[in-house]
Automatic annotation (TrEMBL), chain A:
A Gene Ontology term for the protein's cellular component: nuclear origin of replication recognition complex
Name this protein carries in UniProt: Origin of replication complex subunit 4
Keywords (A to Z) from UniProt: ATP-binding, DNA replication, DNA-binding, Nucleotide-binding, Nucleus
ATP-binding among keywords: yes
Any Gene Ontology biological process: DNA replication initiation
Compartmental location: Nucleus
Amino acid sequence: MEMKRENHKGKALNLLRSRVCDPKFAFKALYNSPESNYSKLKFMISSSVTEACNNSILLLGPRGSGKISVLELVIRDLLDEYPDSISVIRLSGLLHGDDISAFKEIARQLCMEHQLLFSKSASFDDNSQFMVAMLKECGLAHKTVIFVLDEFDLFAQGKQRLLYSLLDAMQSVTSQAVVVGISCRLDADQLLEKRVRSRFSHRKLLFMPPSMEDSQSLLVHMLTIPVDSSFPRDYAIEFNRKVQNIVEDKRFKETFSNYLNFDSSVKHLLKFLFCAISHMDLKTGFLSLENFKTAFSSINRQPKLECLRNSSILELYILVCMKRLEVKEKSFCNFNSVMKEYKSIHDSFQTSDYYDRNVCLRAFEHLINRELICFADNRGHSLSVEYRPVKLLISSAELNQGLRAYHSCPAILQKLMDREG
Amino acid sequence: MNSEEAAQIPRRTTRSLASSSASTSNNASSAKVNSLEPLTVNDLLVGGDPISLDELFSNFPGRSSQILEIVSLLGPLNTPMLPLFVYGGASTGKTSIILQLFRHLNRPLVYSSCRTCYNQRILFESILNQLHLHRKSSANGYSNAKRCERPSDFINFLKEALTDAINNLKEKSEKLISGKTMAQGGIGNMIYLVFDNFQLVREWDKSSTLLPFLFNLYDLLKIPEVGLIFISNTSPDTFYSSNMGYVEPIPVYFPDYTDADLRKILSRNQADSKLYSSFLDVALRSFFRVTRQVDELSTAFKPLYEKYCEPLRDKRVFPNGDKDKDMKRKLFSHINPHITSSLNEIFKVSSHPSAEVENSKEANLKVNQRKLERREEIAKLDFHMSTSAKYLLISAFLASRNPATLDASLFDSKGGSDNRKRKRKPSEKVPERKESLEEELLMKGPGSFPLERLLAIFQCIVSVAEDSSDEDKQSGELMSDVLLQLSSLCNAKFIFKGRSCPIEGSVRYRSTVSEDLALKVARSLKFPLSSYLYKRT
């Protein structure tokens, strides 16, 4: 019995994790209303399929707002409805940004779809002609080809030959295709050349991150486990009740709004949920407020301050020296000038931390590795580290905060910083 | 880690070797390598004996919270996960903990380090080789499983390979279940891709598309059975520079060790833990102010500890046990003067090849008076160079340090003392200008010079040297093969050869040698270098 109980907890955890890792689950819940982008997009594409016409649509919105997931949902539904009259070609600007590989990939996917033999050595022209011919054939067979162009803005770099030949082929009566561009640049259509833009129908769907209330109800939806035969009834009810309690807790609301304040996209929310779920205690088998707090603190990091906390005292000295040089508005700063400053601090305050040049150079290199400082230019590889100009990558406020948080920071450093402050 | 265990644990290098050359690094596998059996899915496991979570905690002091965090993020067997981004400073145990954790979990992983796979193609091919369970051998002409250069090809190959591998795993786990073994004994059907040293990718060609591609890999693949783990030295915010965005992976942070952690780590493997901890009481506090990296500290402490123990070994003045405090005090007074001096040498050690260090350390132990020894050290060069190369090095150094306008006055064909006087005159007259010049030198580093100037100076100093030494060498012997010597000095990075200057059209050179080294070389030739240096007064 005990063993079985443990099993349920593991199963619940597994269910929640799979939900979070599959963005479609979240977006399906989010876009259920008839007003939503999901229904609009579905209407647009399905009408092009049924009416056998050409269409082009842009899906715009910030990263992680579910453009691709919603499109995938729509395509899945349409494939169920019209299994024989749709084929989907998926491209990503990250992978097929150049025309050659784009046409090659289109040809490959068309061949896969229609059980044709794909030739790896086919030339650019072969592939583009093949695509046009295939579009024609598909049009004659009343089959709609849906082109999904992820990272659409990247296709607009260069000569835009792919977009042109795609949209140009769609001008003919026989073809039957839908081009769906997906981009997080809201000005993506402005990037198009004139000849391409004039062939593009300017349908745009804007994806906005959900409101606070929507996010919260999404969270509840994601974390609620079904009360049916898959879990013991009392466990499921108790689990859902606890989730509800957490959500209504004032402290949770505070954490949650803090978290969403700087990025309220769904993907960002999912990340938070994933962390919280991962920290679920399998002994009790319930989520707790503590899980969400841990998740919040482990995602919300302050890398620069962490770096400062990791630095040794000598490294802090070097940072403070550099900051002083920066305040003095020395336009040019390298290891030698830092050492000069370091020496002058030592001369005037007689600090106990005065080390050899070699040692300081190593500490300086550590700072470069930590990326608290970096070389000011990429030129000058001919010079050794001591001479290359460097700049600080940390603000004085951060440095001040870091010094104050450092548990054994020498008082002199804070004094020096305050004087500059 | 105690030594026995360390032998069994596949180290980072062996692990990456294991994936390409397929030697699982436990003892039984040595025979396997020779017979070259075809690889199985089991070769994607880390290998070695199973290790418990408690052992992991004790092997990695101060890391238990990180280990637990990663365990919970990876989740139980067969659960999907979002990509992780493990980051933290050098030598904080990121890679070894991930690898040991997978040994504990007994799940398949594909490990590739972006340091050994130093460009896009090699990285792609290494991942595909591992997934295809492909081993380079003479039979296949040491070729890769797939030739793959572009991300667009890679993603197709990867999808294919992953689906195959995952189906393979699923079959296996079904067999296990039908064979009525415990489900927990299986290796599951997740495959984890680990990208180590991920920060290096930023410097690769095409990194502006490769980075977002790799960060978006999980979304592009759409295979829930894949886990991605990125390991990086630098924090996530240092990856922002590319203008392409991506949804950030989940950060897992490894902070540097605190001094308490460092004590625990350093006193592992010590025969006399009590003695070592009293040594750490003395040494760690001051070293901790300089560096907090375990690797640097342990190399610095090794010779120092030997020194610390010296009075114990040599004199046998301490009877066992009783006068504990007294002994500590004596040892402290013995070691204390060494600490400050070795503090300033802390990083010298690690920059030398280890064998050489050992030798010089042995030499150090024999000679006790440090000052004397140091002078000796300066006098001798630790590498061999031909005489003409030495002269060439010095002339390059001079050409980089001295302003070209002073060459005529410094290297009069007669050489000797009178031009030294001439040289001093301007520097005494305008000390402010000289100071600003010196400052400029400090800032800008060594100057560059054309080949002609180098050769002219070289000729001058060689002739001076030959005149003064009066040895009956044939003149011109030193002048032969100068260009050859120059090119080998360039290859050894003593002299930097720049690209040709667009205006003058000639190649410019720059000396990269520090003043100390130049002085050493000059001393070995008995050449009065300082009298030719402009900034010296």
